[in-house]
């Protein structure tokens, strides 16, 4: 989709901006949201910056012939200033925030690139975009980080020291811009554990009930791809006076199939009591509120394990996981859901929880609790502004609001 010049916004940048603005002389930061997954990760980061009176944030959704539906609606719901893509690529920004490799070569300004899931490297052995995969793919490959011999990010935020080591083999020319900044999503979830009872109340989970959450990534080898009836089976098997059941599906499930269709597929479960969490917010709080997570190889399951929630896996992508990846480590340390008693399988997950949590948290971040400070320092360095003296903080994670049918 090509945006005409007549559709450009009369915003705080560009020709004539000095006659429109109320706050003059602001540095401009562009938040690039090609997918809802990237957008939710960037929303973890923008609070570190957006309250500064010296900075103006602008959002954009890339418009190409291969666009994810619903992303523009997601961005508009955040109430940020949305700039058309064709206008954004004509302007030079003081900072570009990105959580995806898509379209970076078209942008002007220093780029801070972060991962959009657990870890910067991918858990799948091959790229999902490859029709017939031939070579393993990671998030640190040279073809993703460079364009015509130029390294695209000015700062590449890595989650762990192991990722820095891998970068030295995969794209050593990017090492000078690499910063081990940990995982801000994990840090927020760990901090959010103090609001666990608040989140449980929002889900209608009383003090004597246990919350079981089904966590599915996207693609045909996920829980929802392989076992779409699992939510109903868990609801039927667990007595409602003692258990509540929630479901968290990857944003791409909703994006590709549509909210109406996904809700319709699970409407009988919602009517039976399933707390179906929307894709744009609430999944972190739901994991915090959970007592047992039945998941797969997706990042949400790994985060649940890292914050100490017992995890059982209900789908295994077999040989399609990269050896040593976060998902592979979770698979090696979590039990697999079987046909036996759910109570016995929950007890088995609880017994393995401590070891799994240690492995998962170490694989997700090498600098726990420090991500906000490290990312903020990197952003202000690129903005060429003195960093605020106050301690960096981010808002409380939003409470989950289950979908009703």
Q: Which strand order does the major sheet show?
A: 2-1-3-4-7-8
Helical residue percent? 25-40%
Enumerate how many helices there are, as a single number.
17
Outline type: globular
Q: What is the CA-atom radius of gyration, in angstroms?
A: 21 Å
Which regions are unreliable across 5 or more consecutive residues at pLDDT < 50?
1-6
Count of DSSP strands: 13
Strand content: 5-15%
Distance between the termini: 33 Å
Give the topology string: H per helix, E per strand: EHEHHEEHEEEHEHHEHHEHHHEHEHEHHH
Question: What is the arithmetic mean of pLDDT?
Answer: 93
Oligomer: single chain
Describe the structure.
With 405 residues, this protein is of the alpha/beta class. Helices cover 35% and strands 13% of the residues. It has 17 helices and 13 strands. A six-stranded parallel sheet has the order 2-1-3-4-7-8. A five-stranded parallel sheet has the order 11-10-9-12-13, sandwiched between helices. β1 (27-32), α1 (36-45) and β2 form a beta-alpha-beta unit. The chain is globular, with a radius of gyration of 21 Å. The model is unreliable at 1-6 (pLDDT under 50).
Question: What's the quick description here?
Answer:
The chain is α/β, with parallel strands linked by helices and 405 residues long. It is built from 17 helices and 13 strands. It is globular, with a radius of gyration of 21 Å.
């Amino acid at each position: 989709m090509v945006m005409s010049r007549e559709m450009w916004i009369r915003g705080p940048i560009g020709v004539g901006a000095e006659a429109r603005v109320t706050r003059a002389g602001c540095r401009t930061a562009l938040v690039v949201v090609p997918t809802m997954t990237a957008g939710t990760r960037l929303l973890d980061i923008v609070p570190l910056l957006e309250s500064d009176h010296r900075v103006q944030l602008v959002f954009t959704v890339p418009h190409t012939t291969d666009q994810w539906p619903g992303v523009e609606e997601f961005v508009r719901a955040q109430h940020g200033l949305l700039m058309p893509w064709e206008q954004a690529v004509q302007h030079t920004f003081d900072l570009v925030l990105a959580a995806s490799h898509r379209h970076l070569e078209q942008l002007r300004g220093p780029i801070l690139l972060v991962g959009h899931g657990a870890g910067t490297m991918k858990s799948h052995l091959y790229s999902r975009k490859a029709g017939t995969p031939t070579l393993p793919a990671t998030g640190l490959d040279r073809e993703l980080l460079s364009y015509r011999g130029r390294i695209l990010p000015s700062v590449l935020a890595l989650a762990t020291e192991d990722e820095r080591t891998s970068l030295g083999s995969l794209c050593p020319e990017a090492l000078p811009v690499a910063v081990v900044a940990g995982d801000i999503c994990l840090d927020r979830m760990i901090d959010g554990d103090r609001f666990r009872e608040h989140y449980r109340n929002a889900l209608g989970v009383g003090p004597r009930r246990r919350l079981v959450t089904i966590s599915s990534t996207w693609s045909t080898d996920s829980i929802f791809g392989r076992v779409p009836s699992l939510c109903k089976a868990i609801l039927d098997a667990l007595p409602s006076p003692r258990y509540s059941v929630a479901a968290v599906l990857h944003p791409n499930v909703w994006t590709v199939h549509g909210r109406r269709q996904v809700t319709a597929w699970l409407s009988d479960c919602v009517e039976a009591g399933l707390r179906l969490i929307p894709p744009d917010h609430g999944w972190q709080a739901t994991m915090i509120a959970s007592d047992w997570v039945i998941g797969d190889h997706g990042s949400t399951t790994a985060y649940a394990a890292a914050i100490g929630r017992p995890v059982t896996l209900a789908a295994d992508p077999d040989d399609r996981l990269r050896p040593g990846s976060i998902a592979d480590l979770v698979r090696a340390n979590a039990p697999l859901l079987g046909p036996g008693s759910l109570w016995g399988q929950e007890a088995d997950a609880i017994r393995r929880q401590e070891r799994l949590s240690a492995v998962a948290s170490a694989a997700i971040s090498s600098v726990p609790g420090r991500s906000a400070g490290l990312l903020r320092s990197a952003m202000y360095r690129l903005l060429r502004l003195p960093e605020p003296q106050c301690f960096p903080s981010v808002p409380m994670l939003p409470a989950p609001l289950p979908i009703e049918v």
